[in-house]
Amino acid sequence: MMSEDSMVDRGMPSSHHGGGERVRDLATELAELARVLQQEPDSDAILSGFVHAAIDLIPGVDEGSVSVVLGRRDVGSRAPSGDLPARIDALQVETGQGPCLEAAYEHRTVRVSDMAHEQRWPLFARRATEAGARGMLSIQLWVQGDDLGALNLYSYEADAFTDESENVGLLVASHAAVAFAEAEKTRQLHEAVDSRDVIGQAKGILMERHKITGEQAFIVLSMASQRTHLKLWSVADHLISSGDLPSRKNAQ
After folding, report:
1. What is the average pLDDT across 142-162?
2. Which H/E stretch holds residue 137?
3. How many whole angstroms separate alpha carbon 134 and alpha carbon 147?
4. What is the Cα gyration radius of the chain?
5. How many CB atoms lie within 10 A of CB 127?
6. What does the pLDDT read at residue 187?
7. pLDDT per residue over 38-69, tens digit each?
8. Is 90 exposed, middle or buried (0-12, 13-18, 19+ CB in 10 A)?
9. SS3 74
């Protein structure tokens, strides 16, 4: 699982910092938002909360989303604020290029002042301009092994993003990453507990039915898992719900 330190230490602004007093006030406000959102059971709700915070707090932002890259290959869009970010995120997947991918992969903050004159990703820039995105600001959120995330911010107007936009955007990204990481830790813990309970119930069924030990019951479940190419939890759940171990046919 990613550490909080590894997520806070990400892309630096492409220009100088400024507005210290306002930034400190925003940091306090975002810390409170992170605390509240960490109580959400759904990580999508956390990301959506920070996307809307970004729209409200960062100068020049009209729309936002989060791009998630799994295994450094599969790119998906989460918590889009509207149709525009969903379309632009899809374009980046389709063309294999764009600021959010560069931000996620290269550990950096990427600003596009005017998409109509952008030369780094010509195909993407042309189609993004046609779709209505004139400015973009992308900030890396996290790196967890081969899984990456970036906050994507969009403007309907050219030259909408400033140095202040980047500074505040980095604050939002830092708090969003920490809140998301905590939510993922909680989710994984709950999944681990649920999985242990399900496997324990399945072992109990086999022990009672066949008068075997807990270790022997676990071996039976493991062999069924290998035979069907299903996860151990899925084998146990199938046994609990149906009364039988799954067959290869069930796994198809």
Report:
1. 87
2. strand 135-144
3. 28
4. 23
5. 19
6. 61
7. 666 677 888 888 899 999 999 999 999 998 88
8. middle
9. strand
Nearest to 7 by CA among 182, 229, 251, 246: 182
The most confident of the ranges 3-12, 84-93, 137-146 is 84-93
Tokens 């889009």 locate to: 80
**Residue in 57, 1, 69, 37 with CA at minimum distance from that of residue 170:** 57
Contacts of 130 (CB under 8 A, 6+ apart): none
Inter-residue contact 104 to 74 (CB < 8 Å): no
pLDDT 10s digits, 157-197: 999 999 999 999 998 888 888 877 776 666 666 667 778 88
Burial letters 138-150, b for 16+ CB under 10 A, else e: bbbbbbeeeebbb
Burial 20-39 (b: 16+ CB within 10 A, else e): eeebeebeeebeebbeebbe
Q: What is the largest CA-CA distance in the chain?
A: 74
User: How many residues are present in the chain?
Assistant: 252
| Residue 210, CB-side half-sphere exposure with 13 Å CA sphere | 16
Split at pLDDT 50, 70, 90, the class of 28 is confident
Q: Note whether 77 and 101 are within 8 A (CB).
A: no
Cα–Cα distance, 237 to 226 (Å, whole number): 15
Report how far apart the first and last C-alpha atoms of the chain are (Å, whole number).
31
Closest CA relative to residue 173, chosen from 240, 96, 226, 104: 104
Residues pairing with 109 in the sheet = 139
